[in-house]
């Protein structure tokens, strides 16, 4: 049973809402995420709906995907939306300058993306082009999409088959403008942000939520300058934090690793907390009421590309370790739900910490996908504060907490709890006191495996998936859970 730890779930307290938007996703024109991933085209032999793979539509609906960010990433700041509307055969071919200089056909454009979001029931989140675009281009995109009246742009939309405008709430004003989005200083970006935001208007009852570009990781100066100069003009502020535990120039492999690599990746994923707090340090003084939402619109693991795939395609396997990174990170978002209102895992299909991998007609759901599926019980639920007793996972001279817990309720008499055991080798026995409630029934599922790098393949897509779990039980109204090493458990408690 390993070490023991006691936790208290404050069943009658209100820790605020866990927005379902913390469970958002991101699809960029990069490698095989959009083309040959999500989008195969209507003429493909692969079953599709309006060009989008039906197996992917079904998988994303099953996890109740709340929002989808598009078209980048770095791609966004060199994307010109007019290239992606109108008859497909007339759309210009462009070079994707950021990702391998591949030829971008523009077959997947504004209509294809927004129709996909409608099909999925997901809110679209557009990243606008500030780097190589103009305020007019971005303001026109908003009009084309959202205006219901008689204007040239609204009529152009109609001529392309869409009579009614779409609703568009989330609008990113640039992406990583300190880097691939224009290599700007924060002073310059803050001024540009104000200029662009001013021209992006609300039309026909649509209300934009404008998101300013935030830092990579822990960049205090970017946070301070952009917040001081532009906080009044923004509704959201973005943050990117990737887990590498390695230099950018020499990333780690996604599989075939030892315990050092397991520990290091999990340890670095916990730095998300620091990145959030650094952003908050700049936000709180100018926005003490937390009007501005922090949007972690890129997060996840970043490894070396799989052998035989181009480095710029960012195609990597996804293992049990990634599943734990997802669990730990989602718990950090829950904890910070007063400020963090949305997040987007990078990326949805075939890129970085993907939910789904494809190979021609084959597809595999990754361990990360299964975490997003198990954790959907927390969508829009009320967070219940949890005190977690101290129990460490020690590796050589370092340590991280072995146990991470989050609890929520959305239905009277039911509490959902997710638990992560980061320890590579040891079980931990966790007991929960429900402080104000008594449990009478428990059901649970587990995601775990023998090997640290357990993963799904196209030949064995169901190798790692959640199973029924018999290690959770009720003892005198409290709950005991025997957490296997390297595991994620989700339990549903029915109360007395
Ligand atoms: O997600 C891959 C890339 O990572 C994005 O294009 C960019 O915003 C970030 O650097």
From TrEMBL:
GO molecular function: alpha-L-arabinofuranosidase activity
Enzyme Commission no: 3.2.1.55
InterPro entries listed in its UniProt record: Alpha-L-AF_C, ASD1_cat, GH, Glyco_hydro_b
UniProt keyword annotation of Hydrolase present: yes
Catalytic reactions of this protein: Hydrolysis of terminal non-reducing alpha-L-arabinofuranoside residues in alpha-L-arabinosides
Residue intervals of the Alpha-L-arabinofuranosidase C-terminal domain: 297-487
UniProt entry keywords in alphabetical sequence: Carbohydrate metabolism, Glycosidase, Hydrolase
Example of a GO biological process term: polysaccharide catabolic process
EC main group: hydrolase
Database matches in Gene3D superfamilies: Glycosidases (3.20.20.80), Golgi alpha-mannosidase II (2.60.40.1180)
Record's keyword annotation contains Hydrolase: yes
Family: Belongs to the glycosyl hydrolase 51 family.
Summary of subunit composition and partner proteins: Homohexamer; trimer of dimers.
Protein name in the entry: non-reducing end alpha-L-arabinofuranosidase
Gene name of the encoded protein: abf2
């Amino acid at each position: 049973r390993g070490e023991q730890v006691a936790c208290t779930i404050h069943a009658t307290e209100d820790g605020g809402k866990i927005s379902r938007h913390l469970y958002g996703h991101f699809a960029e024109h990069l490698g095989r995420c959009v083309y040959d991933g999500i989008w195969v085209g209507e003429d493909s032999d692969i079953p599709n709906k309006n060009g989008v793979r039906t197996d992917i539509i079904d998988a994303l609906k099953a996890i109740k995907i709340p929002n989808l960010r598009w078209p980048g990433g770095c791609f966004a700041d060199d994307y010109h939306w007019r290239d992606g509307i109108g008859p497909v055969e007339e759309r210009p071919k462009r070079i994707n300058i950021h990702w391998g200089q591949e030829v971008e056909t523009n077959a997947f454009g504004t209509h294809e993306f927004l129709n996909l979001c409608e099909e999925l029931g997901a809110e679209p989140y557009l990243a606008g082009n500030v780097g190589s675009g103009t305020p007019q281009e971005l303001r026109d995109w908003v009009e084309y999409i959202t205006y219901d009246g008689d204007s040239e742009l609204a009529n152009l939309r109609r001529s392309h088959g869409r009579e009614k405008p779409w609703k568009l709430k989330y609008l990113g004003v640039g992406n990583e403008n300190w880097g691939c989005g224009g290599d700007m200083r924060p002073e310059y970006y803050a001024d540009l942000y104000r200029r662009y935001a001013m021209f992006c208007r609300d039309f026909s009852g649509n209300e934009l939520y404008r998101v300013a570009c935030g830092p990579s990781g822990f960049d205090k100066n970017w946070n301070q300058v952009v917040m001081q100069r532009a906080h009044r003009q923004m509704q959201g502020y973005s943050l990117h934090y990737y887990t590498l535990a390695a230099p950018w120039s020499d990333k780690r492999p996604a599989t075939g690793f030892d315990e050092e690599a397991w520990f290091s990746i999990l340890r670095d994923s916990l730095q998300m907390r620091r990145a959030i707090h650094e952003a908050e340090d700049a936000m709180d003084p100018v926005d003490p009421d937390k009007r501005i939402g922090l949007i972690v619109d890129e997060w996840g693991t970043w490894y070396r590309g799989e052998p035989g795939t181009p480095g710029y395609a960012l195609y990597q396997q996804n293992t049990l370790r990634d599943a734990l990174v997802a669990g730990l990170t989602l718990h950090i978002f829950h904890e910070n739900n007063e400020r963090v209102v949305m997040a987007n895992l990078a990326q949805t299909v075939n890129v970085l910490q993907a939910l789904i991998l494809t190979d021609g007609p084959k597809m595999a759901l990754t361990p990360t996908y299964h975490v997003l599926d198990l954790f959907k019980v927390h969508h829009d639920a009320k967070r219940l504060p949890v005190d977690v007793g101290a129990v460490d996972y020690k590796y050589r001279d370092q340590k991280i907490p072995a146990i991470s817990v989050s609890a929520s309720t959305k239905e009277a008499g039911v509490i959902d709890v997710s638990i992560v055991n980061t320890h590579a080798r040891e079980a931990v026995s966790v007991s929960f006191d429900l402080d104000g409630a008594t449990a009478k029934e428990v059901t649970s599922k587990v995601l775990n495996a023998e090997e640290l790098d357990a993963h799904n393949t196209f030949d064995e897509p169901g190798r790692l998936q959640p199973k029924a779990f018999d290690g959770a039980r009720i003892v005198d109204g409290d709950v005991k859970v025997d957490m296997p090493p390297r595991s994620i458990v989700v339990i549903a408690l029915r109360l007395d």
